[in-house]
Specification:
Chain lengths: ~90, ~475
């Protein structure tokens, strides 16, 4: 029996994970606050720990947790840093 | 080696490819399968779970693209899958009589049926577990299409083309009737979170699945257009852990034309247009958009609203401007308005005799919506005011604006009573006696009139707070 699919069957090529770095020394890590309650406190502590391991950090924040980061913001983060930690939820 | 037919096959992970291009210079094993063969499924699952292989595995499904995609999904296949439907040119050229059959291109090696040891030798991988051997099934190329196949309603469940209830199978004839001559390829946009493209054909397929009559299709299209407006925040609503339902309110002549119910039982079952239009919208979001519950839809509890909610405003029983006129449309326009919402809370109020009393009851009923100490709320609450309640306001000469202000002003609490549990930065930043409103702004309170003529039961749909969503109204276009 033939049917008309409700799905968009195109499947995107999976993107491979970037290789995991050996260590953090001298690397720049972006800390992205998605703007949920107390996410910044979590990132403050993560930032402390990262710095203890020799990493540099930069902070970024989404304007709203309920919307995806814009392409521009993602590109800007990707340009400047090697790793990203995202405070995803409360 | 057999001379391979010079055909381009549909590939699930990229554009169509010619056989020669895909296989140039590699050690390639084709695994022929089809979706009605349990041994095929077993083989694909086991191969998908295997580690790196010494040869490139390619699944060749004796299916159309839809069937191939379904089979690959069921088996968890992450290697290239090709759709090789009737007339099965490739199968015939290679003499495939059984599935699964593995063929090492360029050599005279093949494995017929499931033989784990033989696959281990051929691919240089380990395939632990039982069974080690299982006979295959007849290939479609020699057997032809199955005569009956699955019961078609069961087939819909098998494909996952459902919200859990039975659906109407979207045959090409039914979808064509739903489209009514409209361009099937016209796109309404990409539906988050998976960004499937909402072509009219796919929307029509969802409308058929939902049980819509073709006459309802223009409403479904307008509803999808509304849902894809960035200001509605379709991405956030699709993936949130909130219940996050969508309520569709129809105004104007479409109500009578399609037999939509805005009267007794408007929010309940029993009316085909109400039940299927809301459901069609939800199927577009879930199937075309990929917001499947438990997958990309992360709603903790889900919501009965996620089956779909659509009703008409009872404009005839309303003393006020209907919703669409309030939103800037002509009274004789037909529109659909979407509001992102939590479940409706029924408000019984049979004792109030003044508009002030009634407004206070309606307002305070919403005090615990979203969360009891979370004041103020910043997204829209939708009140469905029953005719007896709206008549009381009308008799007192109250406009919608006056009611909105009265509710806003009535529902206030001192910050000290709210400084606990889940509350807002506003509450923590306020002095203990400062009065906090339940809403940030009176405009976050919206009204429609609906329901039967007897009984003083209104309802409020709480907001999807924090989603930054606002109601979207779209005009329904009847033209093709």
């Amino acid at each position: 029996m033939e049917y008309v699919t409700p799905f968009d069957e195109r499947v995107r090529e999976p993107v491979a994970h970037a290789p995991r770095p050996e260590d953090l020394c001298g690397r720049t890590v972006a800390l992205l606050d998605i703007n949920k309650a107390r996410g910044a406190e979590f990132l403050d502590r993560v930032e402390e720990l990262l710095r203890e391991h020799g990493a540099d950090t930069v902070r970024a924040a989404k304007p709203s947790f309920s919307r995806p980061a814009t392409g521009e913001q993602i590109a800007e983060i990707a340009r400047g840093v090697g790793l990203v930690v995202e405070a995803l939820a409360d | 080696m057999s001379v391979l037919p010079d055909v381009a096959l549909e590939r699930l992970d990229g554009p169509p490819v010619s056989i020669a291009d895909l296989f140039a210079g590699e050690r390639v094993v084709l695994v022929f399968v089809h979706g009605d063969c349990p041994t095929s499924l077993l083989a694909l699952r086991r191969l998908a779970a295997a580690g790196d292989s010494a040869a490139r595995l390619v699944c060749v499904a004796e299916e159309d693209v839809v069937g191939a995609a379904r089979l690959a999904r069921r088996a968890g296949v992450d290697f290239t899958t090709l759709a090789a439907p009737a007339p099965y040119e490739l199968s015939r050229t290679l003499g495939i009589e059984t599935v699964p059959t593995a063929v090492l291109l360029g050599a005279d090696e093949r494995i017929v049926g499931w033989d784990a040891d033989a696959y281990e030798r051929l691919l240089g991988v380990e395939l632990p577990g039982e069974p080690r051997l299982k006979p295959g099934c007849g290939a479609r190329s020699i057997e032809g299409e199955p005569a009956g196949g699955l019961d078609e309603l069961e087939d819909m469940f098998e494909r996952g083309w459902t919200d859990g209830l039975p659906v109407v199978p979207p045959t090409p004839e039914r979808v064509a009737a739903m489209l009514g001559g409209r361009d099937p390829d016209r796109s309404l946009g990409r539906v988050p979170p998976a960004h499937g493209e909402a072509t009219l054909e796919r929307v029509a397929s969802c409308a058929v699945l939902a049980g819509c009559r073709p006459a309802y299709f223009p409403v479904v299209v307008a509803a999808v257009e509304a849902a894809l407006e960035p200001a509605f925040n379709p991405h956030g609503l699709a993936v949130t852990t909130q219940p996050a339902g969508v309520v569709a309110v129809v105004n104007g002549p479409a109500r009578e034309r399609l037999g939509l119910n805005g009267g007794i039982g408007a929010l309940g079952p029993g009316n085909r247009a109400n039940a299927t239009i809301g459901r069609a919208l939800r199927l577009v979001l879930t199937l075309t958009g990929g917001a499947a519950p438990g997958a990309l839809d992360r709603s903790t509890l889900g919501s009965p609203l996620k089956v779909g909610v659509c009703f008409a405003e009872n404009e005839e029983a309303s003393p006020w401007q209907p919703l669409h006129v309030e939103h800037g449309f002509d009274a004789d326009a037909s529109t659909v308005t979407l509001v992102a919402a939590d479940a409706p809370l029924s408000i019984s109020e049979h004792r109030s005799r003044t508009p002030e009393e009634l407004a206070a009851t309606l307002g305070w009923a919403a005090a615990a919506t979203w969360s009891p100490f979370w004041w103020p709320m910043d997204d829209t609450s939708l009140y469905v005011v029953c005719p007896e309640h709206s008549a009381l306001f009308a008799a007192a000469g109250w406009s919608k604006e006056r009611l909105r202000e009265a509710i806003y002003e009535a529902v206030v609490r001192p910050a000290r009573e709210l400084q606990r549990g889940e509350t807002t930065p506003t509450v923590w930043a306020s002095g203990p006696d400062e009065l906090i409103h339940k809403w940030t702004d009176p405009e976050k309170i919206q009204f429609v009139v609906a329901g039967g003529e007897a009984g003083r039961f209104s309802a409020v749909f709480g907001p999807c707070d924090g989603m930054g969503t606002r109601p979207i109204t779209k005009e329904i276009s009847w033209s093709t």
